[in-house]
Amino acid sequence: MSKTIKLRKGLNINLLGEASKVKNAVDQSDMFSIKPPDFHGVTPKMVVKAGDKVKAGDVIFFNKYQEEIKFLSPVSGEIQEIVRGEKRRILEILISADSTIEYTDLGTKNPESMSADEVKSHVLASGLWPFIKMRPCDVIAKPTDVPKAIFISAFDSSPLAPDYDFALHGEDKNFQNGINILKQLTTGKVHLTTNGSGNPDAVFTSATGVEKNTISGKHPVGNVGTQIHHIDPINKGEVVWTVNAQDVVMMGRVFTTGKFDLSKVIALTGSEIINPKYIKTIVGTSVKNILADAINGDNYRVISGNVLTGDKISDNGYLGYYDSQITVIPEGNEPMFSFTKGWLGLGFNKFSVNRTYFSWLTPNKKRKLDTNLNGEIRSFVMTGEMEKVFPFDIYPMHLIKSVMYNDLDEMESLGIYEVAPEDFALCEFVCTSKVDIQDVIRKGLDEVYSECL
Amino acid sequence: MKAIENMMRKFEPTHEGKWSKLHPAWDAFYTFLFTPGETTQKGAHIRDGIDLKRTMFTVIIALIPCLLFGMYNTGHWHYASLGQAGEFMDNFGDKFMYGVLRTLPIVIVSYGVGLGIEFIFAIKNGHAVQEGFLVSGMLIPLIVPIDVPLWMVAVAVVFAVVIGKEVFGGTGMNIVNVALTTRAFLFIGYPTKMSGDKVWVGGLGDEGTQVADGFSGATPLGDLATAASVHVENNTALDKIAALKEKITLMPDLKDQLTAKIEALNEIVASNTEVITNKLSIVPSMADSLFGNIMGSIGETSVYAIAIGAFILLYTGIASWRIMLSFIAGGLVMGFIFNFIDGNPFQAIDPLHQLALGGFAFGAVFMITDPVTGCQTNTGKFIYGFLAGFFAILVRVFNTAFPEGVMMSILFFNVMAPLIDHYVIQANVKRRMKRLKTKTV
Fold first, then answer.
1. For position B204, what pLDDT does the model report?
2. Contact A198, A217 (CB under 8 A)
């Protein structure tokens, strides 16, 4: 049964710098990077070393503890450096790319004429498995699990997020092929959830073999976690897989073409971008070319992903493996005098869920928000603010506290299996006490993963 | 701004230097003047503009109407006790000045002692000074009688901050409301300075004060409580009279003796009835109770001033409307129940009037809504507010020795709040378990 859901809770943060609907080509970057920290919980075991030549589709590392999960190079070229951090942890694998990409032939396949096991082993062999994530814990799925369902969100509701209806327009065939792959991986349903308050593109409406649901409301309505919770919630012992719509298209493309082609359309957004737009590029690209002459001012932060869940990167950094967006916002590292811009001021420019600043006079104004914490870290004092932006039948504050004092039983009974850090991003945003909630939830999930799964 | 910033930076104790322990104190002053340039490092890159300082500041703004009205009202009753008040708005300047001079020292002592302790604990534990006391420090002067000695305020604040808050871990960790703990300490430790008919009017308790004829310094609730207890006495006397009358019919030879006794009792009843009528006649009207030109703790009297505060808190979203609304509902329900029983003059009073008297309105807006000591779940907030309001009126009317039941009721439900939350959360947990069970079946 497909479902239609309306959510009342949530929050849309209106930011300046939404990408205008044009797709621009940018010169292909000569540097690419795969960052193992993007794959939470994976311990990389390198197959290549610095100086090796690779083609797009060659294995560069695999998960030490699940050897069948392989990570392939998105481009052809030479492994330039393996960047290590503390305790020799691998942070980045830098690849200097050839100007024309050579592909290793992975073989063209039609998932519909293959058995489930064949599909699974081909997904693993062709390096597509990392696109499949599992709930609970929001990590790369275990190939041995049998998920009760697979969820795809057809839109992203986070601030300045790329419009998938625009970015994926015309990818109907690859998307359908991707769904055909996923259908083989579960005994249950594949859910595709579209935005109830928009007009989904044909790429989603024409998809077959999926359970189509619609959901409408404010962010985090587009988060797949919210959708799972309202469509088919996860109980203890159950596993659900999720795949991003962009990644479904790439999976389908790799199967049809036999080439490990991870090109995708990303959005270049944020108040500091001179001309926000969409760009066609490849996963793992250096953002240097993309940001050249595109940024206003000199005190800014580049984020791979959106402002709520993305990662801070340098302006020579690299696009994260799962990200479809680059956001540039002002860095807020200047102290603000209390009476003018700080906590005692009138605050016409401060965005707040509460009406303590006079910005409530212009609730729909698009704002330029910086990275200032807007206060100091404090004990939890206010209550009820997280509930307003957290559309789950879960008590957020109590779940967070149970993680803080590390009580597994309580985490379990309060619903840790159903959440991912991104679901708490808005709670973190509104928190008066400035607690890093996503980090807390991630720690809780790590604990659950090592103890219970 | 840069100049101030540089000056502040000049005095910043280094983390290793010999003044390093004083860093939290410096930090408190610095963050008062500047929202620091600290940026987000993990998770969400942008954050809501609000912080704890702004939250607390908003509550203080909401308290200002009560404070100003309280100051003026204090002055008014002082002059009224001397027979020089005239109409409420006469002598505006003198009355207000008197109120300011009497109230400000209490505010200063409350803030000085409380923040002093906060600073000491922050320096000792090496953590930042949290803003919790900014509001407590303003609430305390508003809920004590004007004539309370300053040293008592100081002692009570020390008790409330150390035992009520710091031993639990400071701001955000306390179980009971700090301001009410201060008041409870004063009430139990120094009852003569917290109740009766001498403390509510500035200067009334001083030796040699010439009180105007017919002036009573008792609060309306005190009057009502007296009326209620006299009413009880009356009932016992009437019972005795009835018993004596029965005896007369049984033992006619003792008639004279018994009649004398009955007459004596009748006299008591008559004088008691007079007291009751007298007391009830000076209970202020509904209009006065709402306006607030009545006697009571400094900030609690004017429902209108409190309503302005309530509007600010609710509109900005700082206080929980759930708690406020259900607290009032709880009080009303209990008021109607008492109306129905109609046992004594105190119970017979109109429920809305009941809520307008004493600290009920102030408690509903500023005390019960304290997020730290209240329930944290939305469902729990309704239950918590309702029960606290219900019990506030119950305690007030039943315990005539202690008309201010709001304080006790809120403190009691502060303690009960985690229990209420526990059951609300268990219901959520059970829902999740049930989902799992239906699935496996």
1. 77
2. no
Pick the closest to residue A173 from A288, A282, A250 (CA basis).
A250
**Displacement of CA B108 from its chain's centroid (Å):** 19
Q: What are the percentages of helix, strand and coil residues in chain A, rounded to 5?
A: 25, 25, 50
Cβ contact, residue pair A373, B371, below 8 Å: no
Q: What are the residue ranges spanned by the domains of chain A?
A: 31-97, 107-257, 263-361, 385-452
Q: What is the largest CA-CA distance in chain A?
A: 69
What are the chain B neighbours of A373 within 8 Å (beta carbons)? 36, 38-40, 47
Q: Specify the pTM.
A: 0.92
Q: How far apart are CA B394 and CA B330, in angstroms?
A: 10
Closest Cβ–Cβ partner in A329, A337, A373 for B33: A337
Say how far apart CA A143 and CA A178 lie, in whole Å: 17
**What's the CATH fold of domain A263-361?**
Ubiquitin-like (UB roll) (3.10.20)
The A44-46 sheet, strands edge to edge: A44-46, A59-63, A66-72
Q: What is the pLDDT of residues B27-76, one digit of tens each?
A: 899 999 998 989 998 889 999 999 999 999 999 999 999 999 999 999 99
B165 touching A, CB under 8 A? no
The interface pTM score, or ipTM, of the predicted complex is 0.92
d(CA A154, CA B252): 100
Q: Whole-angstrom Cα distance, residue B76 to residue A106? A: 91
User: A107-257: what fold?
Assistant: Rossmann fold (3.40.50)
Binned at pLDDT 50, 70 and 90, residue B441 comes out as low
Q: How far is A435 from chain B (nearest CA, A)?
A: 10
